[in-house]
Structure formats: C-alpha cells, structure tokens
Amino acid sequence: MEDVLRPLIVFGGSVVLTLVLGYATDRLLRKADVRHPETPMWGLLRRGRIPYQLLVCAALLRGSFSEAKLFEGSRATVERVLTLVLIGSVAWLVIRIAAAVVETSYTRYANVHRERDPARVRRVRTQVTLIRRVVSAIVGVVAMAAMLLTFPAMRAAGASLLASAGILGIVAGVAAQSTLSNLFAGLQIAFGDMVRIGDTVVVDGEWGTVEEITLTFLTVNTWDERRITMPVSYFTSKPFENWSRDSPQMTGTVHWHLDHRAPLDAMRERLRDILRECPAWDGRAYNLTVTDTTPSSMHVRALVTAKDASDIWTVQVEVREQMIRWLAEQHPYALPRVSTAPADAAPVPDKSHRSPGGAAGIIRPPGLPGPSGPPDGESAAHSTQDATQEY
User: Fold this and answer.
1) What is the pLDDT of residue 216?
2) I need a labelling partner for 295 at 20 to 30 A (CA). Which of 70, 176, 277, 347 fits?
3) 381 alpha carbon, distance to own chain's centre
4) Does residue 154 register a pLDDT over 80?
5) Does the model's pTM come out above 0.85?
6) In Å, how far are 108, 116, 210, 224, 321 from 120, measured between CA atoms?
7) CA within 13 Å, CB half, 344
C-alpha cells in the first residue's frame, strides 16, 4: 500500500502545488497589468506561465524524487529526464522573459517618438526584433549544450572534440559560408540602419513593405499581397530602393502627351481643383510644366506630393483619370491625334523668266502666262491640265 501511495503523493502533490503557484502568479500579473496600463510588461509576462509551471513541477519532482526513494531500479534515468525537462523549461522561461522586456522597452520608446520620428521608431523596432532572435538563439544553444553535458558519454568525448575544434571550425565555416554571410548581413542590417521593418522598398522591380527581418532572410509584402522572401545578404551586396528611409513623404509625376494647342493655364487650375478634392494629397506642393515637344505633340508633366508610397499612387491615378476626362469633355482639341491630310506644296520659282543681266524675274506659279503671252507647247498643256484639276 505504501508503494502505491508514495508515488501518488509525490506526483499529485507536485502537480497540485504547481497549479496553485501558477494560478496565484497569474492573478498577481493580471492585477499588475490592470493597475499599470501604460506598460505591457505584466501582460507579456503572463505568456510565460506554461514554462513557469513546467519549471516548478520539474523542480519539485527533482527535489522530492530522491527523498521519496521511488523507482530505485531506474533512478538514474528518471533523474536525467527530469533534469532535461528542467533545463528546457528554464531556457523557455528565459526566452519569454527576455521577449517581454525587449517588447516593453520598444513600446515605451515608440509611444514617445512615434509622431516625431517614425523612421527612428522603425529602426529601433528592427533592432529589438533581431536582438530578441539573437538572445533566443544563444539561450537555445546554451540549453542544448547543457542537456548534452548531462550524458557521461558526451563529457568523455569533450576532450577529443576540443582537440579537433580548429579543424571542425574550418570545415563548418566552409560548409556554412552562405548561412554565416546571411547571419552577419542580418546584424549589419539591424545596426547599420539600411532597411527596417515597415520601410517601402523596391527589389527586382517589385515594390512593397518590409514585413519581417530575421537573421537569415527578409520578407517583403508587395502591393498585391504577395510575399517575396529574400536572403538578407541581398541587401548588403546589391543596390535597392528604399522609399521611406528618412521620411515616407514622396513626390510623384503624372505624364500626358497632348496637342500643341492644349490650354496649359486651364490645366493648372484644373490640377489644383483635383488635388483639393483628393484626400490622399498632403497639400505640400504641385506643379504642371511642359517638359518636351515633338512635331506632333508636347509632353506635359504634373508633380504631386503625398505622405507615403501608397497615397502617392492614389494621387497619381486620380489626377491622370480626372484630367483626361476633363480634357475630353471640355477641350477635345487638346488630345493628341495623328494627321492624315497631305502637306501643302511649297511655291517653286520660275527660272525661265529672268532678266538678261542675271537679275531674278517675277516669280509666278507654274502655268500662268508671262509678259510675252501664254506659254506654248508642253507647258501650255500642263497649265491647262493643272487648272482643270484645281477646278
């Protein structure tokens, strides 16, 4: 009977005590979160209640297992399993606490500087995100190493592994050259302020918003809701466009090919009216000028401004559509057209009627009679034919 009650008391008491401590801790964190709504610290710490309860339960079982003298035949195996669970739960809890601290620091900073310097807020967000990932990776590696050291075979092999660490390091460096380059590129992006989460970038002819940055890859959310995943080393080795590095404000252009008779002054007034009715225009500036001409048309360009890349696209399409509609309704002659009418012939001087001294005579159209009478021969025939065709 004692062999049955003792394990039940140990395991049941550990589980019950763990649930009680977990519930009490969660209630305290919930009350602190309600009393201090200005900081998300206490609410974020509640995410660690599962590893916290796992840690408490493993610690209670690990401490009471040897005292209760349970499972004498497999005592070493049970202790090793409890030790592995204890190490894993500690690492898990540390990662959750570090994430809560980092996220709280960023939230406080963003609340203060979001309106004054949004670009700097995005930079800090990128940095804290990568710092959190680095901390998680370091804690995970340390926890894995601690778990391996609990096995006697691993401790015995430590000396041989240490002796060959130089060769293994070279081999690993060559094998993981791409991974290491992306890792260092991620750190360079985080602290070099090249690109940040929320920036509007253009890569390989696609423009979108940086959605996620990790230690090895970067995700761009395009305007049509596609996701482009690229290695972070791309941004340190190739040129790319960052439309919101210092400020998200942008200046856009709208182009038209119009007839030379287009009413430019009326177009400037119409552009002003269109922008005043467009909510996406930020009111900073606008302009309309002729930038080029061709024999059949002229190139008209309008400059408009907006607060970010999304709004500048809205302003451009709105101005282009409204202006074309207005020209078609009010000034249809201003739209470009292809002329199919024959060109007028230039007058040809009559070289047969020149003065004897070499002075030029009177220039007459072909077929008209000169001072000495009507033309004769073939000239008269051509004159009569031309006159008939003209009539």
Assistant:
1) 75
2) 347
3) 79
4) no
5) no
6) 13, 9, 15, 27, 36
7) 2
